[in-house]
Amino acid sequence: MPVLSTSPFLKPAHLWSPRNSPGRQRRHTLPASEFRCLSPEDAVSVFEIEREAFISVSGDCPLHLDEIRHFLTLCPELSLGWFEEGRLVAFIIGSLWDQDRLSQAALTLHKPRGTAVHIHVLAVHRTFRQQGKGSILMWRYLQYLRCLPFARRAVLMCEDFLVPFYEKCGFKALGPCEVTVGALAFTEMQHVVRGHAFMRRNSGC
């Protein structure tokens, strides 16, 4: 697995200069904006954002708190959080899948030998919505996946009203997803993350 600090896409958004070098920074200050993988210790903050974002729309969450902890324990490297001054404002949680299409089992399983990154959820804190943060976070996440040697594509399922958002992020619809949750039906979408050799050679991955 790559070490996150080696990936230019996950470095703090502020730029280094002599003025903000470690020797000159005030003690105990937090970076204004930081992207990093999540850990099980972030699970409660993740769930609070997700619960508020999804329950009002669909009545349920893609992942419950124990499932969040499950994936952040098994595959934290497939998650990404956006922090503003130490506060989580947006996140993505993924796991690996080893079949061409998603099935009901994909909702709870992580397949370590898989080459498809199943994006379970993307959510933004209500205070930071309508600012383009979801698109920016997805872009950074896809750049990061291109640095992972085992990742071939990203897949997700979403309700129809979210299809245009993910199309703008570069995903292509594969058709109806066989997974259902209660009365909800979904479209399955895919983004190929390999085949970008020039980008990988020049990205510092």
Automatic annotation (TrEMBL):
Pathway: Aromatic compound metabolism; melatonin biosynthesis; melatonin from serotonin: step 1/2. Residues 33-194 form the N-acetyltransferase domain. GO terms for biological process: circadian rhythm; melatonin biosynthetic process; response to light stimulus. Keywords: Acyltransferase, Biological rhythms, Cytoplasm, Melatonin biosynthesis, Phosphoprotein, Transferase. Its EC number is 2.3.1.87. It is found in: Cytoplasm. This is Serotonin N-acetyltransferase. The gene is Aanat.
